[in-house]
Amino acid sequence: xxxxxxxxxxxxxxxxxxxxxxxxxVRAGEHWAVVGGNGSGKxxxxxxxxxxxxPTEGTVEVLGRRFGRxxxxxxxxxxxxxxxxxxxxxxxLRPHDDVRTVAVSGRFASLGVYTVPSAADLERADALLRQxxxxxxxDRPYSTLSQGEKQRVLLVRAWMANxxxxxxxEPCTGLDxxxxxxxxxxxxxxxxxxxxxxxxYVTHHVEEIxxxxxxxxxxxxxxxxxxxxxxxxxxxxxxxxxFGLGLTVEWAYGRPWIRVKAVRDAG
Length: 267
Known about the structure:
A hairpin with a 2-residue loop joins strand 1 (2-13) and strand 2 (16-27). This protein has one domain: P-loop containing nucleotide triphosphate hydrolases (Rossmann fold). Helix 5 (119-131) crosses helix 6 (147-160) and helix 6 (147-160) runs parallel beside helix 7. The chain has a six-stranded mixed β-sheet, with helices on both faces. A four-stranded antiparallel β-sheet has the order 2-1-4-5, covered by helices on one side. With 267 residues, it is of the alpha/beta class. It is globular and about 50 Å long. The protein has helices spanning 42-49, 72-75, 84-93, 99-105, 119-131, 147-160, 177-191, 230-233, 236-243, and strands at 2-13, 16-27, 32-35, 57-62, 65-66, 79-83, 165-169, 198-203, 215-220, 223-229, 245-252, 255-263.
């Protein structure tokens, strides 16, 4: 079974195409990085993949269930979703919830916990908090955490439900180098466990793409520039076209790093 299948998917707002003619298949055992500049359509693509947005055109199947023939509310229970916007929303709506409660809420796909969690749920939450280096935060109010700590707790929350698909929308936005690397290290450790969900990770910073990502999809102006195996896809030419700059890519520690050669004339 394919984890995700998009065929000729377009998303239009008025006269503007946010996504155009997207064809993309994610298979079991693959982890994908989605790369592109601001305005390339990355977040819109993820919102479709996570079951929160219907495309204007095309067909979408997620976890073997086709949009229009399935209850998307039920489907979303099998999908973990992490974003900075969710972190901000949780802090605003549930300012007094402690970190352990936020983690456990992932078990119920809810903002807040409205039933008494089982001992097994609490044990799993504590184990995952340790996995992501958040155990010392368990009793602190979520709203008081740093942005990096909030994002790591959201990863714990997403993992609580044993999702089949985990969608990460630029989780390192606003983080300094130390916080970023702590989050990425926790993600790498959790992804190495068995079973692990299929992971789709969106970023415009290619150095965040860990060795665990087997494939990459590159977007520019709502269209696919290239897709395929990570190293074969993240090339000088592809990334230069995606970002409108002359770029070179170097690989170190299993991760891509870019250097700017020249700025292209926008005209």
